Request: fold
Amino acid sequence: DTLLQRYRALIELHLRRHQPLGFYARHLKVTPDHLSRSCRAVCGLSALDLLHDRMLLEAQRLLAYTDAPVVVVARDLGFDDASYFSRFFARRAGQSPHTYRVALQSGKAAMIEAQRL
Reply:
């Protein structure tokens, strides 16, 4: 679906700016509801879930491959408030960013991910 492809491309382009769903819908010249219905029809996830999943993946990469403090990772992803980022991460990943990083360093992150599936 071309709308989904354009949406994913926009996410990649603006990922580190933490834009709301309405921003993407306006750029795609559709309503947020239409965008979400289209995403759900094609891949089974809402537009917001796709956006949040991609943000979580980028956060996990930054936590895994850099030594940047959580507050810097939050800022790099466009979060003005590190505590809001930590709540977002914990809600999506099932653990805090710090706990994720510690688990990753000790080799337990893969086990945690496997348990979530």
Observations:
- The helical segments are 2-14, 21-28, 32-43, 47-65, 70-76, 82-93, 97-105, 109-116.
